[in-house]
Amino acid sequence: MQGTVDGFSYGLVTPLVAYLMACLGGALGLRCTTRAGLGPRSWRPGWLALGAAAIGAGVWTMHFIAMMGFTVEGTPIHYDRAMTYASLAVAVVMVGIGIFIVGYRGATGTALFTGGTVTGLGMASMHYLGMAGMSLDGRVEYNTVAVAASVVVAMAAASAALWAAGQARGFLWSVGASLVMGLAVTGMHYIGMAAVEVHVHGTAEPATGESAAALLGPMMVGPLAVLVLAGLVVIFDPLVVMGRAPAPSAERLPGIPAHSPAHHPPVRSRLRARGPVEHRSRTPQRR
After folding, report:
1. Compositional bias (Basic residues) spans (predicted)?
2. How much is the pTM?
3. What distance in Å separates the CA atoms of residue 111 and residue 119, rounded to the nearest whole number?
4. Fewer CB atoms inside 10 Å of the end CB: C or N, the chain?
5. CA–CA separation, 63 vs 80, rounded Å?
């Protein structure tokens, strides 16, 4: 028998919180990605890795917050711990590959297409791998068209976000991009959930795994800690907020006062004002 699927058992609470988490992860990750291009090249891998961890953690947290509101009438839903951890690892690794491509090749042309595709596939893979870890007394089927649409939305959202990160137009620009990215990622999730059909067996056999509250609550501590760490780095690094490198300061040579050249005439004009210069003989004098 076909079970009644409800993705909003807590009303709008889980979609709104999930959207905010996707926006938070996107904002922090994009600012770290932008910051990677503003400093020394030796610091770039660290910034890109932090950005990948922030986006991956934000997307993963968004997914499972939304899944807390997912219920199927007639059967409890449990989750496999190993598969759930694997979905987090896939999200961080594949998002990291896409970010590193754009971080080193630039957010244009082939690099942007490749990086956005890999990042989008990572988001979609995380979603469906997490769904594969779901255990219930029934059979889960998917609508192929809706699944394909969710993957396309994920790739488009990732490409747009990486392009915005490469523009480095300031903090407000990235905030706007993160809001769009959060909307697209959350939309990808619910499009994928609309593709789900559950046929309940009705055998009353207990499902294996752990409940959402028992498993997902403690597991979110790690991703939330990553987001807090990225947030602290963003807050205390002025370049991340400004979104641009500081202007290079003029080099000060020893013995030369640091005055503005606009207040003094050129050297040649000063020499003409003093009149002819007396040339001294270079022949040493005898004593």
Report:
1. 261-273
2. 0.76
3. 12
4. C
5. 15
- Cα distance between residue 188 and residue 63, in whole Å: 10
Neighbour-count burial of 213, counting CB atoms closer than 10 A to its CB (0-12 exposed, 13-18 middle, 19+ buried): exposed
Element containing residue 6 per DSSP (H, E): strand 5-6
Residue 178: is it exposed, middle or buried by C-beta count within 10 angstroms (0-12/13-18/19+)?
A: buried
Relative orientation angle of helices 171-194 and 44-67, to the nearest 10 degrees: 40
Q: Of all helices (H) and strands (E), which one includes residue 134?
A: strand 134-135
Nearest in space to 214 (alpha carbons), one of 87, 103, 81: 81
Confidence bin at 250 (pLDDT 50/70/90): very low
Q: How many C-alpha atoms does 150 have within 13 Å on its Cβ side?
A: 25
Longest dimension (CA), the chain: 122
Q: How confident is the model at residue 246 (pLDDT cuts 50, 70, 90)?
A: very low
**Could you give the CA distance from residue 112 to residue 59 in angstroms, rounded to a whole number?**
20
Alpha helices in 12-141 (DSSP H): 13-36, 44-67, 81-105, 109-132
Instruction: Report d(CA 68, CA 77) in Å as an integer.
Output: 10
Structure tokens at 195: 């593709």
User: What does the angle CA 122 – CA 216 – CA 207 come to, to the nearest 5 degrees?
Assistant: 100
Contact 67, 213 (CB under 8 A): no
